[in-house]
Amino acid sequence: MSETNPKLRAVLDGIPTYKPGKPAAAGGPVAYKLSSNENPYPPLPGVLDDVIAAAGSLNRYPDMACTGLMNELANRFGVPVSHLATGTGSVGVAQSLLQATSGPGDEVIYAWRSFEAYPIITRISGATAVEVPLTDGDVHDLDAMADAVTGRTRLIFVCNPNNPTGTAVRGAELERFLDRVPSDVLVVLDEAYREFVRDEEVPDGIELYRDRPNVAVLRTFSKAYGLAGLRVGFAVAHEPVAAALRKTAVPFGVSQLAQDAAVASLRAEDELLGRVGSLVCERTRVYEALVKQGWTVPDTQANFVWLRLGERTADFAAACEKAGVVVRPFAGEGLRITIGEAEANDILLHTAEAFRREL
Ligand code: PMP
């Protein structure tokens, strides 16, 4: 037997494995998970019924074209089916977009800090990551991002609202940015948290995409629709991009359970968006209480808040865990706290108040 290991791509050296949010400790007195921007509500009974019905055919491959879901999405958003592509979560679609556009020698621009999958999937594609710092107010610096475009730029991620800061860019600045980006560079508007946006000046990417062939919009069923465990997301983009996505997608990457649950969720959208409304009320409550306690909290349009704690990040995360809520620390930078059930948010607020007094 040979002593050497299989040759792996050198580009993988130093790329971290995606780190999921820490689960709530099993067996603890109370344990709430506020670390992955999930929806605290369980699936609607009607959605579960459809999942259970679909499970009866698990011996079969799913419908690879996701026909039912594509038709439902096309109706819901007023776009042609040919402008849609589904994938294994929106992160799966983002990875397909990179495969379709970018490779060694190419450049991919995104803000930093932003969604932590961007550097991983960009570097896996072989392209060079160009990270543009957020402004002091933790918002995308769109002028600097447009300045960073070169002849090698193939794709730009704009995470709107941004994970982990919750901040969102508004219509006028986003349109000015899109006008500056060359039309052969794909701009990906990652709108994983779109349904939580309440600032009316934050544009709906699906409206922006309509007359811009170089814009792709990413959406997911993981957050507002509460289906994170089923892994289904989609892109809206003009035909050449959507067709490329269908080529690069993992075959059968969206299970029939996921497809049927997504269709059932779109049909029960009023109820699900009502839950989103309750979460937005909780977000306002948490945000205002934190500000009253003296914290500086960037305006959030997503289902989480961001506390820039610097060196105290790990200490605050540990205090939260001791109190029964698990949050998401980014070492040395800050803490992302998902808005959860009211009891969980109360624990978080009590912990934050006690911690604040010690600062
Ligand atoms: N985009 C952003 C900005 C996210 O925060 C997330 C999930 N944390 C995703 C995409 C991926 O979501 P999913 O793959 O579950 O659709």
Task: Describe this protein's structure.
Belongs to the class-II pyridoxal-phosphate-dependent aminotransferase family. It holds the Pfam family Aminotran_1_2. The structure is a single chain. With 359 residues, this protein is α/β, with parallel strands linked by helices. It is 39% helix and 15% strand. The protein is built from 12 helices and 12 strands. The strands form 3 sheets. A 7-stranded mixed β-sheet has the order 2-8-7-6-5-3-4, with helices on both faces. Strands 9-12-11 form a 3-stranded antiparallel β-sheet, covered by helices on one side. Helix 7 links the parallel strand 6 (186-190) and strand 7 (215-220). Helix 1 runs antiparallel to helix 9 and helix 10 (269-293) runs parallel beside helix 12 (342-358). The N and C termini lie far apart (60 Å). 43% of the residues are buried. The model has no long low-confidence stretch (mean pLDDT 96). Bound molecules: 4'-deoxy-4'-aminopyridoxal-5'-phosphate (PMP). The site of 4'-deoxy-4'-aminopyridoxal-5'-phosphate (PMP) has 13 residues, from helix 3. 4'-deoxy-4'-aminopyridoxal-5'-phosphate is lined by residues 37, 89-91, 115, 159, 163, 190, 192, 220, 222, 228, 233.
Summarize, please.
The chain is α/β, with parallel strands linked by helices and 359 residues long. Helices cover 39% and strands 15% of the residues.
